[in-house]
Every structure is written in structure tokens, then in C-alpha cells.
Amino acid sequence: xxxxxxxxxxxxxxxxxxxxxxxxxxxxxxxxxxxxxxxxxxxxxxxxxxxxxxxxxxxxxxxxxxxxxxxxxxxxxxxxxxxxxxxxxxxxxxxxxxxxxxxxxxxxxxxxxxxxxxxxxxxxxxxxxxxxxxxxxxxxxxxxxxxxxxxxxxxxxxxxxx
Length: 162
What we know:
Elements: E1 5-7, H1 27-39, E2 45-57, E3 60-68, H2 72-87, E4 101-107, H3 114-122, E5 127-133, E6 135-142, E7 149-157
């Protein structure tokens, strides 16, 4: 087990489609409405989780992640639809290219860790299972000493035309 990593609890695993930052409470309903429209035409799909890696690099990791294999292109389409719907209500376009991943842990004090880099290299093609993507969830994230605490503001099913 790697030392110095704050591991994310399995109940907090998720793929971030767009990070909104701090928003005013009153905007949650407007955001939910925009997201409902964005996901109405996108049908549910499966994704396979595959491989481990790190940002910015395995040689000097800050974030340890699980990657997405099959289904990654569908997630990218979903992220683009979410981004476009939120641009319409005043949020800036996402500056970075979408990178489908699930954060597993954050390195407390980033430093070179050859053993961790080697372990990540061996796990590049590790098959981690599959899951169904059938909704988009608007989440609130509250930092705490034990890591972020998430609460669901709205759950929007895919493929539900109004």
C-alpha cells in the first residue's frame, strides 16, 4: 500500500463531467434544468474501467486514478453536451480536454515515488470491471479534513425526453 495518499471512499467514486466551482444555491434549479435538456437525447450506456494512472505524471503523482476503456467516447459526448448546456446559462466553456477517469486518491505531499510509478506502469491495462451510466448527478462538494464530502442536489436520468 502506498504511503502518503488520501484514498477516496468507494461511495464517492464518480466521473466529473464538468467542475462548476462554487455556485449560488439559487442557481442549482437552473443548472438542473439545463442538465435535464442536455441528457434527454443521450441513451444510457456501459463503460469499462481499465488501468491505473496518475496526474500530472506517474513519476510525480498528485492524483491516482482509474481510467475508462470502452465507453470513453460516449462519456466524452456526454461531457460535451453538459458543457454546451451550461455555456447557454452563463458558465464558461471547459478549457481542458475531457479526460474520463475516477479519482482513487490524492497524494498528500507530491514527490518522486519510483515504487508507485512502477506499480502504476504495471497496472496500465488492468481490467477493473464495468458499470452502467444511466444518469448525471449535480453534486455539491464540501471539503473536510477526511476528504471531500459529496451531497446530491439533482439526479437526471439519461434518455428521458420531456
